[in-house]
Amino acid sequence: MNIILTSAVSGILFMFSGFVLKDKRHLNILAVLLFIAMIVSGIFQLQGCEVFQGKYPNMIETDPYRILFFIILCLIGIYYTLVNRYNFSKPGSHVSDYFALILISFVGIAVLATFNNLMLLFLGIEILSIPLYGLAGSAKHKMRSTEAAVKYFLMGAFSTGIMLLGITLIYGATGSFMMKNIVAYAFDFQSIYYLGWILLVLSFCFKVSVAPMHFWAPDVYEGTPTVFSSYMITIVKGAGFMAFITVMGAFKITSEIVAQNYQYLLSFIIILTLILGNFSALKQKSVKRMLAYSSVVQAGFMMFALFEINDESQYALLYYTVSYGLASIVLFYALTQVKNVSYKGFNGLSKRSPLLAFASTIALLSLSGIPFTSGFLAKFFILSSAMKEPSNLILVIAALVLAVLSVYYYIKVIIAMYFRKSNQKKIKLSLNSQILLVLGTVLTFALGIYPDLLKMLLNCLTSR
Amino acid sequence: MLLSLLILLPLIAGIILTVIKHSRPLGFVGTAVSIYCFVYTLFLLFTNTAVDLTVVFPWFKLAGVQASIALSLTGLGAAMVLLTTLVYAMLFVYFYTIKKNYSNSFYGLLLIAFGGLNGVFLAQDLVLFYFFWEIVLIPIYFLIGIWGAKKTRISANTTFFIYTILGSFLMLAGIIYIGFQLRPNSFLLTDVMKSTAEFGKLQTLAWLFLIAFAIKIPLFPLHSWQPAVYKASPTPVTIILSALMAKMGLFAVVNWYMNMFPFTCQVYDNLLYVVGFGLIYASLIALTSHNVKKIVAYSSIAHLALIFMSLFSQSEIGTKGAYFQMFSHGIVVLGLWLSVDYMQRKYKMKDIKSIGGLAHIDPWLAVFFTFFGLANVALPLTSSFIGEFMMLNALYSYNPILCVIGCAGVILSAAYTLRLSTALLFGERQNVPEKRQKFPKTLWILFGIISILILVLGIYPNVLFNLFQN
Known about the structure:
The structure holds two protein chains of two kinds. By secondary structure, chain A is mainly alpha-helical.
């Protein structure tokens, strides 16, 4: 309950802070402070120190993994806020409103981190999504932004309907919303419960933007102001996966045929995602749209964690989220700095801003999965968690061969930055962003060389 | 622990050189580091020091399988590290001699590749090996992309990168399968060997690794990236590609592939025919092409194919010969490329038709180039002769057809090497200065050292054989 309360209070606080704090830089500091408050309340919750028990204690639970995931997402949030310090005022002038929306969506994440009931899951997903519709349309004077908001809203409502239907069917089969009652239900291929379960999976596919429900993603991520699409594809996607893995992990699949179907379903989703995402990204002229498709591809990789849900795969997912988050935030920051988001806009960036080019290169290499960056170990962990079944070797090989395509469009950016010349203007970075870019790069390397760093942090937080 | 110095020193120096902004050229740092590494390797290998030649540290653990930082300076790996440090030292000294100042990042990236190469040859842990295997690629990629030939560098470079990444990702799938399906105790070579031996036939898995290694060597159907890249890259990078990175592939075959999948060695006769076909094919292209870099590149493919064939000949003499030839080929090719680079710089050589009659005006260059060419042909008394003789000998007892292919390759190699040196050195003077040219003293010493090495190894090969043994 701690984290839900803290994040809700933070959101409300921010809605009114616009009246008090006129200087936009202070808003930034306030946001960071509130994130820290959320982290602290999360730590308290981990240590079993609840401020408020609530009237329905069974509806929420303290699952250490999810609380840790929440804390990590808050940490990424801090990094995101600091890096984009001067970018929040780019879409429009209501900076405090944007922050309020971001923090309110964190309420959704907090609910997802604690739910023990399908109704709460639904609430969490909704609270997470609705502020995002607002953020997507925050650049009001731009058609693309409005289009993105409308598209996102319509598609989001559609997928919410699917999720609700799934929950209803599961309720119809079991007569309960509580996780512990419904997961004990041994379901088979014929039951209505199975249908509900499939619908739940599909609606999650929508939320994390994997095929066949990914079609909205490129348009929305491209149309949304860059600073907010950065938030949507890192933190929101991570939160979606956190809920996804929890729900999938909770269902006890006892029937052989259902287990088999689950494997087929996942393999189908993954392969379809990787093929559609990679081949579409290959053709793009705009780096932003390419990154949008690449986020679909990366989500396809994250799906590997769902094959066999245990400590390792959960940790792999967390690690992947961190690594992908770091890289994407840096790249989207670079997108806000170049004038033109096409590949041409990156031409000669190594001369125009060596640090930005270097940080982006490391981020791109991390996304491609080159060793010594965290992206490699993320891929390694997540693929290895799917390797319990020998037949998955084919799937892993297919995924990696398709990943070669992704390397191709990532290095196209590197080629533009380093091997092509341009006479565009130099880019001056503020000291703040220089330090943070260096920090991001160092973290990418540190996690890539010594992956236990993250584990040490987690142990440190959970130990009493 | 001191062993990691061979990796860390170049790596750190390289990163610093790449990143810092300094207007003055700092090439001497690279020279110092590479010479130091060379001397240090010599010191480790040929004196009985107390330094432990194997290092094992726990690194991270995944699903109960331990990955460790394990290095070892023994056997073929030791010889390869010696070759790497030697080639690098020579290369950097050569930069000094010709007074060509690249920017600091150039030297920095070269040094990063240096650290990675040493890592590949030292690593005894599968994951660590993969780390270094990949990291060599990145600096080379940037070196070619930034300093390569104007027109072709981007396309050649992209082909190269995508090709090698494809191989690496296939290998990664193999590593994941080994780690989490076969479940060895750790990723150490010894543990992996145990678990693959238990499982018997692992054909698919073996192919995943072999394709990765074959792309790097490169072997016949997977070689198409190589000539374009050799042509497009600046000569120092070409030297590293052909003298060292090709050896990475061969070394991986010896150290990893053959140890992990000993059973498959008998199955691969048909593969050897394909490789043999590649040998002849590459030699014929070398015989007809006009671009000097292309000729040396294809000659390299042919020689490496022969080494690969003899590695699979399942006899001690063949393996030994192949090891020896791996070292010797590195030195010979270094000599060849350095002289080609010198000719390009001084006489603006483009292809074999563009200049001629160099022997009249630059006799020392002619002497050295001819000598390296003869070493490439494997004339007796040169080091290549020892290796090729042993390899052909082993191939004959294994499969005479393969031996015939190998011998044809040697004959063709004589043909194209002599064609090359005849066209450049002898005949009418063409597009060269009238007066006799001065040959720099330092270059004289450098080429002299390479020649002496070739001769010494050709006359007294036991120096190297002893090294393989320990």
